[in-house]
Amino acid sequence: MSATDIQAQLQRASACLQAADGEGCRAICDHLLTSRPDLIPARHLRGLAAIRTGDPQRAVEDLSVVFRAQPGNGHAAFWLGRLLRQADRLDEAVAPLEQAARHPEFEVDARYELARVLSRSRRGQEAESQYRRVLERRPDHADAAANLAFLLERRNRLEESADWADRALGLDSGNFMANLTRAVLDRRAGNHGQARDRLESLAESCADPMNRSVVLNQLGQCLDGMEAWNEAFGCFEQANRLLRETHPLGQPVDHGSYGLGRLRELHEWLTTERVDHWSPNPHARASDPVFLVGFPRSGTTLLDQILSAHPDIEVSEENELFDTVRARWVENGPLTRIGTMNPDQLDSARRLYLEALRERRRHPERAVIVDKLPLNLAYLFLIHRLFPDSPVLFAVRDPRDACLSCFFQSFDLQGAMPYFLDLRDTATYYDTVMRLAWLSRERISNPVHEIRYETVVRDLEGSAREMLSFLGLEFSSEVLAYRRQARDRTIDTPSYQQVVQPLYTRSIGRWRHYRQHLTPVLPSLTPWAERLTYPCD
């Protein structure tokens, strides 16, 4: 085919695309690429046609080829970045969107997409910067203003958040995100009636099941604050049911690293495993990390903020640092290998973990590094295998309050979090995790310090002194002012609102307000309450 013929075919394909004939455009490009697979304009047109015909996978494949060959092609870069964002391939979306943002034609839209990617990637400061640049160029961009308000609320900058939410509502009174953020701000300010009215209106008008679940969860929190216990529970139940039924990650995976099936296998294995016969680990060091564990919603984020305020402590927050080690030594092959690891294997496994930890450190000058991942509670035996002398801080809370709080929280549905969409699953999961953790505690020799949530909120200084003494550190008054630091940090857990408030005790015994709803799960939780010496009236 001559160059003239190729050009004519490309013009025909482009005309089909402009006429909304995606299938016609694809057919022409398929023919061209059969003989000229390196023909970038055909790849570009076919990628755009695939968007029109509802084939995002083909669009990403073709536009990725274009972006690698022509990184300066702003049009291809923008659409590739947007598609990758929509597919939750967030890390991959950043480079094409940054490239597209260099082109005046695409700058505003690309920066807006980039801000959404960065926000979902927990890069809040960078996301904020991108939203502000969008709004400098397009002050009437209601979605950017609303998303910035939402982001600022998550970062506990409430006055700024309110300003941007109100600005977005002035531009678009029906903007979902602005209305949601305004309701959250009202609830946090104690204006429960205003928040309830706005949330009820949103719930009635919201057709998207994901957004509706968010609204219902917020409405549940509002009604809980108004002591309307039954209505609150109904909202949480509806919100979770929607996620179970419609979210692609709404069903738990029993054989994931934290799945019920996997944890039961580990418990069965550990029941007969002779940990005291494991080969020695000669690599333990005084500089090895501290581990902060506990069932979710047991106060680990509060402890994280307290510890992070100490000048000698850095906390690594909720990073899956054991992933590679688990894959190699726990999940692939017989578990008996763990006990027979030789010194070289132990050193290799430790290095995998420590290198991952080192990459995430922000303050390497601090002497003590704390790995805070609550559900490492289920892998105490693995912590012991690699770091046999590492101190373990074990956060404990009344199991009825902890499970109720998990059921009420809006978690990112990854790992074990889908179990918390159902109250029975939540209680079963608690029982399974704690059985494994308790068995591990009986077998390991690591020093363990138990910290009760209820004691911390009633006696912060006493709890902090005991915790720091356990870690061999001097007390610092900075830990008592942890809220000041928490306001300046991005806290990527559902506790971001609570940890900047003065300590309160109203969450202690909260389960009693919901006793009738907890009746089906109390038989599995009450024995744990008794074992942990909580009142079992």
Automatic annotation (TrEMBL):
Molecular function via GO: protein-tyrosine sulfotransferase activity
Assigned keywords, A-Z: TPR repeat, Transferase
Family annotation (InterPro entries): P-loop_NTPase, TPR-like_helical_dom_sf, TPR_rpt, TPST-like
TPR repeat copies, ranges: 108-141
Gene3D superfamilies: P-loop containing nucleotide triphosphate hydrolases, Tetratricopeptide repeat domain
Annotated protein name in UniProt: Sulfotransferase
Stored SMART domains: TPR
Lineage: Bacteria, Pseudomonadati, Pseudomonadota, Gammaproteobacteria, Chromatiales
